[in-house]
Backbone:
């Protein structure tokens, strides 16, 4: 096996350990910005729309970010032979969120981005360089009735910048 085994992976079967884990220290492009995490939910699109009004008022660029990772399966890992790509899915999600948020062509201060990893970890890492993180209150999680999703709650508690949680409109 190549790579370094992290302490949390030490007891995992080798087949489940990611040989090329995402780089959480990756610095985002450009100057500090408002970062909006999107997952394709109505709540995340509402967050993009809200942040699109804030960005020009604060003279900040807007980064719309979708986080992706390879799914794991119980029978031995991810099969790239499937006719589906999580990266392509993430690209579609950011593109659709942008198209749903702007009546005309997206402005030049908007950047569409994807990053590999777990959403909470990536967004908290992004918060080190962001002026603000904007998230929808509920994503595609399975706990109906919660006022705040797990990613939003974790980011609100652990981010290194202000976090704005937008409730669907």
Residues:
């Amino acid at each position: 096996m190549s790579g370094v085994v992290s302490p949390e992976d030490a007891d995992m079967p080798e087949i489940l350990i990611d040989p090329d884990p995402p780089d959480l220290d990756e610095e985002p492009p450009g100057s500090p910005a408002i970062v909006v995490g999107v997952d394709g939910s109505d709540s995340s699109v509402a967050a993009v729309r809200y942040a699109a009004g804030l960005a020009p008022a604060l003279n900040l660029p807007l980064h719309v970010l979708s986080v992706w990772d390879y799914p794991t399966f119980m029978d031995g890992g991810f099969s790239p032979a499937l006719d589906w790509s999580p990266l392509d899915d993430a690209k579609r999600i950011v593109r659709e969120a942008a198209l749903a948020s702007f009546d005309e062509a997206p402005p030049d201060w908007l950047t569409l981005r994807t990053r590999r990893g777990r959403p909470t970890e990536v967004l908290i890492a992004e918060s080190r360089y962001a002026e603000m993180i904007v998230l929808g209150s509920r994503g595609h999680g399975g706990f109906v009735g919660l006022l705040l999703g797990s990613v939003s709650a974790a980011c609100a508690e652990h981010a290194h910048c202000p976090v704005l949680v937008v409730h669907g409109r």
In short: Confidence is low (pLDDT under 50) at residues 1-5, 142-147. Residues 40 and 93 are 5 Å apart (CA to CA).
